[in-house]
Amino acid sequence: MKFYTRRQTFALAAGTACLAGATAAWHGQAGAASPIMFRMYSSLPTDENSSHYVWYKGFKAALDARTGGQIVVNFFPNSQLGAESAAIQQVRLGAIDMMISGTSIWATITPEIGVLDLGYLFDGWDDVGRVLGGQPGKLLGQQLEKKGNVSILGYGYSLGARNVFARNPVKTPQDLRDVKIRALPVPNVMATLKAMGAAPIPMPGGEVYSGLQTGVIDGLEHDAPTVLASKFYEIAKFCALTKHIYNPIVAVVNQASFNRLPAALKADFLAAAAEATDQERATAKVSEAKAFEALKTLGLTVNEIDRAYFRQAVKPVWTAFAAKYALAAEVLHEIGAG
Predict the structure, then answer these.
(1) Residue 97 DSSP symbol
(2) Quick one: 152 and 275 in the same domain?
(3) Which structural domain, as residue segments, surrounds residue 58?
(4) Which of 110, 148, 269, 322 is 20 to 30 A from 254, comparing alpha carbons?
(5) Is the pLDDT of residue 133 over 80?
(6) Whole-prediction pTM value?
């Protein structure tokens, strides 16, 4: 017998209620067949500071408009269906149909996709979109399909580039030397920050604020909307625009789940995903600009920094990663960073 935590039991009950309600509504239409039900995982909340939710909201609207409710995708935010590391295994098996997350988590199954966590690969979000819409995105998608049993529906944007936010000013690359920066606990992110001269510290997101308060860390690297939402600016009052990583988000669907759809609905499903991706990308750019405006009014000091210096410093990280994975070397070559 399988036992569930209280949180899992609540999530399952909520999901069942959503499914029952949607099914009842559908059957209320004369002669209508039952809709095809999907479940979609996210680790983030349902608000406008969540790139995951922004993508889902656009996808749902486009899907409803195209299929008239023939496909219902129920969204489970806030890790209701378990931790991300466990969820990707459930998506591989088809126990969860869809997932939206940062690309980083998929490196545990497809290490090559970790190439997107290398620093200073991109000059901005338009560059990210160009690359992932071309051969590099295709190569990584094929590898994820092969190893992860999922298909990529779209690469979206995080709500901003990752910058350094610190308790003390970081105006030059030398100012970052040995500064304790909470970094996303992902190998290439940690390696990038170390190459930049910082002392990267892996730490759960829920401990960052207290870590700043107590001095366990001197700062963090993150996007502006997250810093605003989490109120990290109350302690980390200085931002260096390092723009070191533009790591995208990715929406995927289990291949067997997708193949349950009739051919006509597959086309609508993919078209809705493309619409959602375009809309989310546009929203992400606006969200970052608005967040920085708000942070400045709250007392955050923002300064430019020598990104060309950092780009040269992290190149050995690219070389080391390319030496481990042939596909990563090919992607870096296609990007023009090899």
Answers:
(1) -
(2) yes
(3) 6-159+247-287
(4) 322
(5) yes
(6) 0.82
Q: For residues 229 and 165, what is the distance between their CA atoms, to the nearest angstrom? A: 14
18: confidence class by pLDDT, cuts 50, 70, 90? very low
Examine residue 93 and state whether it is found in any structural domain, yes or no: yes
Contact call for residues 251 and 99 (beta carbons, < 8 A): yes
| pLDDT on residue 334 | 86
- The pLDDT, as a whole number, for residue 32 is 56
Count of helices and strands (H, E) across the chain:
12, 11
Closest CA relative to residue 40, chosen from 60, 23, 21, 22 = 60
Residues 255 and 222 in one domain: no
- Alpha-helix residue ranges (DSSP H) falling in the chain: 6-27, 51-67, 84-93, 125-132, 135-148, 187-195, 208-214, 224-230, 255-259, 263-297, 307-324, 326-335
Is 111 in the same domain as 152?
Answer: yes
Cα-Cα end-to-end distance for the chain:
52
**What is the radius of gyration, based on Cα positions, of the chain?**
21
Q: Note the pLDDT tens digit of each residue in 68-98.
A: 999 999 999 989 999 898 999 999 999 999 9
